[in-house]
Amino acid sequence: MKAIRDEVLALKISPLYEYRAANGYFPVIGEGSHEASIMFIGEAPGKNEAQTARPFCGASGKILDELLATIGLARASVYITNIVKDRPPENRDPLPAEIMLYSPFLDRQIDIIRPKVIATLGRFAMKYILDKYGAIENSNSISSLHGTLIKALAPHGEVVVLPLYHPAATIYNQSLKETLKKDFKELKKFI
Ligand code: URA
Predict the structure, then answer these.
(1) What confidence tens digit (pLDDT) does each residue in 60-114 have?
(2) Number of folded domains in the chain?
(3) Number of neighbouring beta carbons within 10 Å of residue 16
């Protein structure tokens, strides 16, 4: 993980590098237990995250913490990261070129953690993981796949992928929050 951090820190070819440097931001590598059986993968850091180098520590993180609490899952017992490790300007969606550049770091993190369950937060992480593992469901949208346990083959072995809505999507949509709470219950089987 330290090697990954050092490489991302020095990633001057990234289109997000200048923006990071100009704002005094940090890359956000990930946080949590390296022995975790559950790994959460989000999209990209927001402002709070880029200022502190911690994933999901702003508004989305507060929601994620609430969701973890509903199933009694300690944040320190899971591993939390993102596909893209630097903040995109104005929290815009990550670009395909950014996903392509940063995803090998995510792949290496998955190889290190060897999770049994990968819970994707939002459509970008879902699409990346399902495409990567050749899961047949990869052409489906998050509205049809959220909350379903999908068996897939990762380089380290069998994993279950659980697509989840992004916590930020629930900020203005209370019904989505209820959906996310319900979907989170699927994780209880793996605690
Ligand atoms: N949104 C994400 O996708 N990741 C974070 O770390 C914070 C907000």
Answers:
(1) 999 999 999 999 999 999 999 999 999 999 999 999 999 999 999 999 999 999 9
(2) 1
(3) 24
Residue 183: closest CA among 62, 76, 170: 170
Which of 39, 49, 54, when mutated, tests ligand 1's pocket best, judged by the most ligand atoms within 8 Å of its CB?
Answer: 49
pLDDT at 140: 84
DSSP 8-state class, residue 61: H
* 125 alpha carbon – ligand 1 mean position (Å): 11
Which atom of ligand 1 is found nearest the CA of 166?
Answer: 3
Residue ranges making up the domain that contains 20: 2-190
pLDDT band at 135 (very low <50, low <70, confident <90, very high): confident
Residue 75 sits in a domain whose CATH number is 3.40.470.10
Q: What separation in Å is there between the alpha carbon of 24 and the centre of ligand 1?
A: 18
